[in-house]
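Justification of computing resources. Each target in the renewal requires a structure prediction run like the one illustrated here; the chain below, 144 residues long, is used simply to show the kind of job we budget for.
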Amino acid sequence: MKKFKVVVNGEPFEVDVEEITGAMPQIDVRPTARPVPAAPKTAPPRPAPTVTASPAATRPAAAPTAAKPAVTAKPGVVCALMPGSVIDIKVNVGDQVKTGDVIIILEAMKMENEITAPKDGTVKEIKAQKGQAVNTGDELIVIE
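Resulting structure tokens:
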């Protein structure tokens, strides 16, 4: 077994490496002893300012709501589930679509998200354009 001292991101380690003899090597890594820095001295905390709550602030918090579904209260309207940019529109007005068909591709957080048809039907209207930035809940396509 050989011993090595290595430094990773400024942190020293002792590494024991077993010689390979056809089997998987055993590696044991232990940090070397370092002095622990003393905690910095801080000023005593200041008292918090007094704030008078408005009547709205004294009401109980509303229950959390679920994320908006792909279809709004209007049946057949496909909405953006998240903010992003329309990368591609896979359908045209008048096209027949089936549930699960990819109808639009939305880029959000450097990822392409396939938006699918929520029901069988005909594309009545396309409200988004390629390259358009959309927000959560924006109407994209209407399917009848």
